[in-house]
Design goal:
- There is one protein chain.
- With 293 residues, the protein is of the alpha+beta class.
- It contains 8 helices and 13 strands.
- Strands 1-2-3-4-5-12-6-11 form an 8-stranded mixed beta sheet, sandwiched between helices. A 5-stranded antiparallel beta sheet has the order 7-8-9-10-13.
- Strand 4, helix 3 and strand 5 form a beta-alpha-beta unit.
- Helix 1 packs across helix 2.
- The longest helix has 18 residues.
- It is globular and about 60 Å long.
């Protein structure tokens, strides 16, 4: 059997790594009894922008695996301050369970050297869960919610929520440093560039922000539960006004405020893939981005 080789990922690899990402998650869906939906051009283009972003800003955490010169997988990891996160680890379905995933994970974890906290948002794939759980991380179960939000139980509007602006990056980074221990820096520009709308609370004792994309809560960070709850309901209202379904992912027991809001909005709550932390526990007033943690 040919040996798996690793090398740094380059811009020229992006087309193929995006294909592998799409194929891997479609295969996982089929194995879980789901019928994968077609990937539209704009979704594929968003994935390409994400992969290019990591090659540009985190070349030390971006790797591809090859067998006999054929690209079979990739890993994308980021470092922001002293926070490390695994954004993506995928292997071509035809090449899985042959060791490529483990080698990619080990290479990505080496990029965490010097970081005091690390996070991985896992899929529901049992092989991925085992790999992360046996790599020095603590597992935290998660739930996710989706559906058309009902606003009947919306609490009083005690926070002034405004639309985000280009000049808000410094404020957003300050919130993330307070909540997760590290700002996002260049990630904000890309998040806005892939169709996410930003909302901000910066007037009052609580502060925070949220991104919504296609009705889905893409990312939320706040200094307290009340501000986080106000932002989440604003996201629900934004989706309802646009007649969109909403999804809220990555809720652990620490995000009871979000779980309560999802039930109040009559969303369907189901188990999701776990999150893994090392050197920390899930921040409370926080809903991470699947791509940018």
């Amino acid at each position: 059997m040919s040996e798996t080789q690793l090398r740094p990922m380059t811009e020229a690899d992006v087309e193929e790594t995006v294909r592998i990402q799409i194929d891997a998650f479609s295969d996982l869906g089929r194995r879980e009894g789901q019928q994968p939906e077609p990937v539209l051009d704009y979704q594929r283009n968003r994935a390409k922008l994400r992969h290019h972003h990591f090659v540009t800003h985190d070349p030390g955490g971006s790797f591809v695996a090859t067998i006999d010169g054929q690209l079979v997988g990739c890993a994308l990891a980021l470092r922001r301050g002293t926070l490390w996160g695994l954004s993506l680890l995928v292997v071509d379905p035809a090449r899985q369970s042959a060791g490529a995933g483990r080698k990619l994970l080990d290479a990505a974890l080496a990029y965490a050297d010097g970081c005091d906290r690390a996070v991985i948002l896992s899929s529901t794939d049992p092989r991925a869960i085992r790999a992360y759980a046996t790599s020095g991380f603590e597992l935290f179960p998660q739930v996710a919610a989706s559906g058309k939000p009902s606003l009947d139980a919306r609490p009083p509007r005690n926070h002034a929520v405004r639309s985000g602006a280009v000049g808000d990056t410094t404020f957003l980074d300050a919130i993330d440093r307070a909540v997760r221990g590290a700002g996002r820096g260049p990630d904000h520009e890309l998040i806005g560039g892939i169709g996410a709308t930003c909302f901000v609370v910066d007037d009052g004792p609580g502060r925070g922000y949220a991104y919504v994309r296609d009705g889905d809560v893409y990312l939320l960070a706040a200094t307290d539960d009340a501000t986080a709850t106000a932002l989440l309901w604003h996201c629900f209202e934004f989706a309802a006004d646009s007649n969109l379904k909403v999804s809220v992912e990555h809720m652990t027991g620490e995000q009871q405020w979000a779980i309560d809001a999802c039930f109040a909005a009559r969303l369907k709550v189901v188990p999701g893939g776990p999150v893994f932390w090392r050197g920390a526990t899930p921040p409370r007033a926080y809903l991470p981005s699947g791509a940018f943690l």
